[in-house]
Each structure stands twice: as structure tokens, then as C-alpha cells.
Task: structure prediction
Amino acid sequence: MFTLATFIILAGAWLLLSGKFDAFHLALGGISCLLVALISQDLLFHERKKGLAARCGEAFRFLPYSCWLLYQIIVANFHVIQLAISPRLCERELDPHIFTFKTRLKSDFAKFVLANSITLTPGTVTIRIDEDVFHVHAISRKAAGDLETSETMSEMERRVAWVFEGRA
Amino acid sequence: MKKIALLITLAVGALLILAAEDFPRWGDAHAPANDYLSPYYIEKSLEETAVPNIVTAVLADYRGYDTMFETTVIFCAGITVLTLLRRTQRKAPKAVRPRPARQGADVILQSASRLLVPVMQIFALYVLALGHHSPGGGFQAGVILGASFILLALSYDLKTMLARLSENTLLRLSALGVIIYAGIGALCLLLGDNFLAYAALKVFGFSEVMAHSHGILGVELGVAVTVMAIMFSLYVDLASGGDLDEGL
Amino acid sequence: MHGNIADSAMEFFFILSGVLLLLFMFMPLYRAIWGPTVIDRLVGVNVIGTKTTIMIVLIGTLYNRVDMFVDIALTYALLNFIASLAAARFFQRHKEVGLAEDRAGGQSC
Amino acid sequence: MLNIVVMGLMLLGLFFFFGTSVGIVRFPDFYSRLHAAGKGDTLSSILLLAGLALYNLHHLSVDAILVSVKILFIIVFIFIASPTATHAIMDAGYEARVKHWVKRKTPKEPWPGEERRRQERHP
Result:
């Protein structure tokens, strides 16, 4: 089942990559996809508990999330450039510190998305994940925002939880 | 003994330098290779092998012997490194280094590699299969395939990766690649033509030109398998210091 | 005629942005060469590697052979990523390598 | 029209890359340099490649679309790989106990460590 899904995804990737639609190359693609789907079937879909339908839902909910993320990335870049170019701001705002927070996300993939989102958004970079404790380096007090302060879940974590666990 | 070896080395070196005198000047536009060989390849390779990428055609068809022994050299070099580096129980145990604490515990790396590795492998096979049309071929595909396994071994620990692809399998694969290459050559010999003369493969129902094309593809597959297996086993041995116990 | 002018303008623009990209790459190169610790060098090299991917696509656009160069760029991006990871893991394991300057600090944070 | 969009995207990408580079050179310690590298590198690569992918579509054909899709592959790859590499490098530094730069609470307090003394020379 999951192997079949892997095969279909890989076949899509092959078609987009190769751009040759004659029988010979399609057959080669079929063989290649089958081979890869067999040797790495447990990679693309690691957690077997969730069904395929739930994953499609995740993919759909990921789209608005990625738009929001893109906006955050742009804000982050302006922030970095401000800090880099203006010396006074650098002097005043720069106050790096490392803090930890505990996440409520369960699955590894959701943690991965949250970690990379933290890295891409203003002023914070994920250093590591220990079980469910995130170690985050923040460049200034302001930038850490509600990741550091909030008691329950920060805004970003709520959004990631909405994407992967379906709760608001 | 050492002096004799040095003398032999010096003598051979001197001979090589003497022989190099007879080479055409570097960059000479009218060297025999530039006057006769290159125009021939450029004009004829497409109609003789149905391979638009001249590099691939020259590499695997006109100079098939060369590439076969290149593959063999890779195989031999890999085996040599393995025999030099590999520690077994009988050899002296190495000084115990503290085990890297973060090994196999990095959720971010694991999730990223789970996403990327299947697509990387598909891309490697694409590079292999479309080596006829775009830059690519056996060596490149082997490197990308090997790199995808290295990525897995980096993000999980070495033992998990070796459970998927054991050392014995790797050694067998590396030999298999050379056998595929030489086997295609020998098949041509059996079918009554010269060694690695792909035209003989037309008995399988291809035209002569397509026989060249498919022969090249088969040969590239052999190269890719060998390069992949040797590259990954080199990584495994170098990263673990030879005992395959723990990686980077 | 108009198309030609636009094309040559774009070509000029691409060459210009390639040159700018190259110039900006010298700043990470400074980090890669004079970076006080090994890991600083790694940061510089990683950034240069990512930008080299873009340079390859840019050169492909200039030569009108993007279809070829894009494969090379993808391969380069993959290998650069894995190289960065491997180097990072290596220094994680060999903590003592090249971090002498920070040990001289002596104080814990 | 298309050309203007392409130029805009690429100039924006170059601008962000410039900011990244300046940040990498000027920030005080390795952690904050990685802030610049992780964010700026990702966005500037995405913008530059998006510009090139769009320009590639100006002779519209199936082949051109496929090539643009391949550039899109590179974009997605960088989007996943760049933060991951940032994280890996930072984790290595954290594991090796590279100290992070801290703000002086009072101006007279000495900078601890070699790296910070260097920063004091070039604030």
C-alpha cells in the first residue's frame, strides 16, 4: 500500500525529471521507480499508523501554512539585513541567548517542520531536538517572541499542530 | 631491496619522460588526435551509436576498453583500501573514543533525509538512464546513489544503514558491476564479434545502431553499480575507522 | 528587432548579476579563510556552495543550455548539502579539532 | 513584462544575498552568523532561481516547462536542505561547546575569551 504510494510519487518525479515520453524511456522509468520503491519503501512514509487519506489532508493544509511561512521568511530576511547593515541597531538589539521549550507535537515529521520553520523565521534558529525539548538560539529578546514566553503553545507550533494533527 | 626498487622506479620514470618527448605539443591544433579522431567522433557518433551525447558515446563505445579498466581500477582501489583499513577482531583494537552522543538521535536530519533520499535515488537513476541525452552516465549516477546512502548513514547511525545494505552485499555489488561490464563484452565475443563490439547485440532484435545504444546503457549500469558500492564502502570504512562500529 | 534588444538587455543583466553574485561571494570567502573557528569556515563554505548552484543555472541561461546545466546544478546542490552535513558531523565528533580559540576563553556561559 | 518581473525577483535575491554576506562577515559569533546564513541563503537562492525559472519560460514549450519544473525541484530541495544544513552545523558547534557571544551588561565588564576580545577590537 505505502510502497504503491511511494511508487506513484517517484513515478511523478521521474516523469517531470526525464521529459521523455517514449515507450523505452517510460519502461526504464518504471523499472527505476520500482527499484527505488523497493529499496527505500520505509523512508518516504515512515509512520505507518496514519492512513493515506490523513496524509493527503496534511498536504492540503500544508499549502496555506507554507504561504504564511514564506511571508515569515521575508520578514526574517529584512530583520537580518537591518541587523547586519545598521551598526547602531546591531549594538542595541543584539542579545543572543539560548532557551529551551517543550513541544507537544508527537510525530517526528511535525517536529522537523517546526524546527525548520523556527530556523527560517526571524531571529531564531533551532539548535537541536532532544526527545521533545527544543533548544533554540535567539538573536535578540524581541525576536524570540512567544516561542520563549508562552506557557502552552506558541503561534507557530499551533499552526504546525493544525497542519499535522488537525487541531487548532 | 629499497635501493633496487628506487632504481627501477627511476628507470621507468626516465623512460616515460623520454617517451613523452614524442607526444604532440600540448594544445597543438594539428595533432593527429585533433586532425583525424575528433572530427570523426563529432560527425559519426550520432549515426553510429544513436547517442546524442558525444562524451557518453566516446566513453562507453569507442573507448570501451578504457572505461572497463577504469571501472576495474576503481574496484581494485576500493578493495585495497578495504584490506588496509578494515579492522577485524584479530587485528589490534583501536583506542576507544567516546561515542558521539548525537549519533542517530537527530530528528531533523532523519526527517530531511527520509524526504530526500528516495528522490535522490530516482534522480541518480535518471542520470544513469538519460546519460545518452544529457550530461550524466554511470560514474555520476554511481556517485549520487552512493551519496544518498551516505546521507542515510549520516542521519541514522552506521549500524542501521548496514542492516539495510550489509558489507557483504556491498562487496558483491562492486564485483557485480565489473562483471556486468565485462559480461557484456564477453557476450559480444560469444555472439561472434569482437570484445565489447556492441553491434553483435543486434541478434536480440535491435538494429545495429540501437544495439550500440543499448550496449552503452548496460555498460553504464555496470559502472554505476561499482562506483556506488565502492564509494559507500569507502565511506563506511573511513568514517568508522575500520571496525564498522560507529560512523560520523 | 524589439525582441533582440530585450534579449541583449537581459543577457547584460544576467552577466551583471553573475558578477555581483561572485563579488558578494567574497564575503563568505573571507569567513571561510579567516574564520576564527573551523565551524565558522563551514558556514562560509556552505553559503558559497549554495550560491554556486545558482551560478551554474545562471551560466546555463547565458549559454541557452539550461536543460543541461540544471542537472549539473541539482547534482551540485545535493553533493554540497551532503558535504556540509558530513563536515558538521565530523567536527561534532572531533571536538578538539580547531576549536582551540574557544577553549582559551575558559569561562562557561 | 516578463523580463521586468524576472529582473525584480533577481535583484531582490541579490539584495538579500548581499545582506546575508554582510551579516556573515559582521555578526559577532558563529551562532548569529548562522542566523544570517540560514535565512538569507534560503530566500535569496529561492528568489534568484525563481527568476531564472520564469525567464526560462519566455519561449513557451513543453521542454521549457519541464526545465522550469527542474529548477523548481532545486528550489524545493534548497528549501528543505538549507535549514537542515544550518541546523546540523549549529548542532555541531553546540556539541563542541562553542560559546555564544553575550552582550556586556556594563561597558567595563571584560569580554570573556579570545573570540570576544577580537570582537572588541572590531565592534
